[in-house]
């Protein structure tokens, strides 16, 4: 299935209305898939009956060449072990401080100078590419202490980063194939995209025996692609909503330039704006499990053993049932308690993770969920100094694309303008 079709499928599933927000898709050759945007079902899948819904053979097979036995592609004891180790690391203050230092250094030494140069020279940048490079440098330095120096003025074509992009894209395309036999035949015959993927893997040193590599690859996918996707759509949305941008700037002005973790944590309106952006454009628009036993979802949908069950954050974020008649509006205020708004004392009101499963939920909830909001440091660092102005051709709107993570089709062309104001 080509890119155009994948876009149409995700749009179709988001607007399909059923009484229970669940429908059964009978695919060719007797394959059945259940797709749900019902929070009760999501809680059932991700928490209450977690023991029944695994990654499963189908999903593992589709992405095993890329992720191997990494944490996002395993179940059982292997998953528990990796989860325990990662959980311990993510909960240490030393790691949090290290992450802060890495992000701040990449921001001040690389991202800001590149944006300053673009502003001075009035050049157009692909901001999606810039943010991916920024996130790639950060996650590589954090995960294994290596600086790939991917975000430089020359915008170098770092071989691993390019190979990773291609491998992730091809792995995502497998889910959209007419039938798994289609891509497996291509792999057997060593043709097309599967030939390209096997070439990349053989030249990367990646193998099933390389357990550490599998783990690192998984964290690169999580730390680079989800962060850059979230920020890409965030900067596009605020460019269309100057009132939101002004509120964020007021908040930035109240913090020091080298804001501490606690100061960043208190940027409530910025936090709400990022949450609202990810409601409309989730970094992972759809995720799925495989039932290892027969089951019945809370809405009465019968699940047979072996059925693939997908939940749909993209559709859920656009559901009138969940977000009201103004669901299409970008309104950070829907995340805020406004009782003390006059005094500037807004407080953030989180939605339950089964209505808003952007960071998953239950035992597999994203370990880096809280650290992900270090994105606020990036927002503060960029908006304090610059306006990000989209440079699409007249009449062109960005197109949301779903691979393993979401992308903006064709990139995000922008012009950078320096701010006359001093923040």
Task: Please render the helix and strand layout as text.
Layout: H1 3-15, E1 22-26, E2 32-36, H2 39-48, E3 53-54, H3 56-67, H4 76-90, H5 93-121, E4 124-126, H6 127-144, H7 159-174, H8 180-189, H9 192-202, H10 211-239, H11 242-253, H12 261-265, H13 268-280, E5 287-291, E6 295-296, E7 302-303, E8 308-311, H14 313-316, H15 320-323, E9 336-337, E10 347-348, H16 375-383, E11 386-390, E12 400-402, E13 406-408, E14 413-418
Parallel strand pairs: 2-8
Antiparallel strand pairs: 1-2, 3-5, 4-14, 5-8, 6-7, 9-10, 11-14, 12-13
Helix pairs in contact: 3-7, 5-6, 5-16, 6-10, 7-9, 8-9, 10-13, 11-13
Family: Belongs to the cytochrome P450 family.
Protein name: Cytochrome P450 94A1
Pfam families: p450
Descriptive notes:
The relative contact order is 0.18. The chain has a five-stranded mixed sheet with strand order 1-2-8-5-3, with helices on both faces. A three-stranded antiparallel sheet has the order 4-14-11. It has a two-stranded antiparallel ribbon with strand order 6-7. It is globular and about 60 Å long. The protein has a single domain (3-418), classed as Cytochrome p450, CATH 1.10.630. It has helices spanning 3-15, 39-48, 56-67, 76-90, 93-121, 127-144, 159-174, 180-189, 192-202, 211-239, 242-253, 261-265, 268-280, 313-316, 320-323, 375-383, and strands at 22-26, 32-36, 53-54, 124-126, 287-291, 295-296, 302-303, 308-311, 336-337, 347-348, 386-390, 400-402, 406-408, 413-418. It has 423 residues and is α+β, with helices and mostly antiparallel strands. The protein contains 16 helices and 14 strands. Residues 1-5, 177-184 and 204-209 have low confidence and may be disordered. Its cofactor is heme. This is Cytochrome P450 94A1. InterPro entries: Cyt_P450, Cyt_P450_E_grp-I, Cyt_P450_sf. Keywords: Heme, Iron, Metal-binding, Oxidoreductase.
């Amino acid at each position: 299935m080509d890119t155009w079709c994948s876009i149409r499928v995700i749009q179709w599933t988001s607007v399909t209305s059923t009484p229970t927000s669940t429908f059964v898709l009978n695919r060719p050759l007797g394959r059945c898939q259940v797709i749900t945007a019902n929070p009760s079902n999501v809680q059932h899948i991700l928490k209450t009956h977690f023991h029944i819904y695994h990654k499963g053979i189908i999903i593992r097979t589709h992405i095993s060449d890329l992720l191997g036995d990494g944490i996002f592609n395993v179940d059982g004891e292997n998953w528990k072990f990796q989860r325990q180790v990662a959980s311990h690391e993510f909960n240490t203050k030393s790691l949090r401080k290290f992450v802060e230092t890495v992000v701040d250094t990449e921001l001040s030494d690389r991202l800001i100078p590149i944006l300053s140069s673009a502003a001075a020279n009035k050049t157009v940048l692909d901001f999606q590419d810039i943010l991916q490079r920024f996130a790639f440098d950060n996650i590589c330095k954090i995960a294994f202490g290596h600086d790939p120096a991917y975000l430089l003025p020359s915008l170098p074509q770092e071989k691993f980063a390019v190979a990773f992009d291609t491998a992730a894209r091809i792995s995502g395309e497998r889910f959209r194939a007419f039938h798994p036999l289609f891509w497996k035949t291509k792999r057997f015959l060593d043709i097309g995209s599967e030939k390209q993927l096997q070439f990349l893997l053989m030249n990367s040193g990646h193998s099933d025996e390389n357990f550490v590599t599998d783990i690192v690859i998984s964290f690169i996918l999580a730390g680079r692609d989800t962060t850059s996707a979230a920020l890409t759509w965030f900067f596009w949305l605020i460019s269309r909503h100057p009132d939101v941008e002004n509120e964020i700037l007021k908040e930035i002005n109240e913090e020091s330039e080298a804001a501490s973790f606690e100061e960043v944590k208190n940027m409530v309106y910025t936090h709400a704006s990022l949450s609202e952006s990810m409601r409309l454009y989730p970094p992972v628009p759809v995720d799925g499990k495989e039932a290892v036993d027969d089951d019945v979802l809370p809405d009465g949908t019968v699940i047979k053993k072996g059925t693939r069950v997908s939940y749909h954050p993209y559709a859920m974020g656009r559901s009138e049932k969940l977000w009201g008649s103004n669901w299409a509006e970008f309104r950070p205020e829907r995340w805020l308690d406004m009782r003390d708004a006059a005094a500037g004392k807004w407080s953030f009101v989180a939605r339950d993770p089964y209505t808003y499963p952007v960071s998953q939920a239950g035992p597999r909830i994203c370990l880096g969920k809280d650290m992900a909001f270090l994105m606020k440091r990036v927002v503060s660092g960029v908006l304090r100094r610059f306006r990000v102005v989209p440079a699409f051709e007249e009449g062109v709107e960005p197109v949301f694309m779903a691979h393993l993570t979401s992308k903006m089709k064709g990139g995000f062309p922008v012009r950078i303008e320096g701010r006359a104001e001093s923040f």
